[in-house]
Amino acid sequence: MRKSKFTESQIVAILKEGEAGMPVAEVCRKHAISAPTYYAWKSKYAGATVSDLTRMRELETESARLKRMYADLALENTAIKDVLSKKF
Questions:
Q1: What is the separation, in whole angstroms, between the first and last Cα of the chain?
Q2: Cα(86)–Cα(76) distance, rounded to whole angstroms?
Q3: Are 45 and 32 in contact (CB under 8 A)?
Q4: Shortest CA distance to 23 belongs to which of 11, 35, 13?
Q5: Which SS3 state, helix, strand or coil, does residue 47 take?
């Protein structure tokens, strides 16, 4: 997936300009984005603040870490059960 040239905080600022009453076409022209990009961002980041996005990213990182920990422990547990079942 292609990385955006805008950070999430910049995207939120651009969307706030549109919410403040500036026409979408003018916002898009000012920031050199297309209207579909604007509306895609609006559907993804609608009503979000920068602190919400930061917290969401932290939670996603923690969730991924916990999933990896669970996978490692499940694999270890299965290996231990296999060894114990073959021993007796």
A1: 51
A2: 16
A3: no
A4: 35
A5: coil
pLDDT at position 10 is 92
More confidently predicted of 88 and 70: 70
Q: Which long-range contacts (CB under 8 A, 24 or more apart) does 29-35 make?
A: 31/6, 33/6
DSSP state of 39: H
> pLDDT digit string (tens) for 8-60?
889 999 999 999 999 999 999 999 999 999 999 999 888 888 888 889 889 99
By 3-state DSSP, what share of the chain in percent is helix, strand and coil, each rounded to 5? Answer: 80, 0, 20
Contact 38, 72 (CB under 8 A): no
Nearest 5 degrees, angle CA 74-CA 59-CA 42?
A: 130
Measured distance CA(74)–CA(79) in Å, rounded: 9
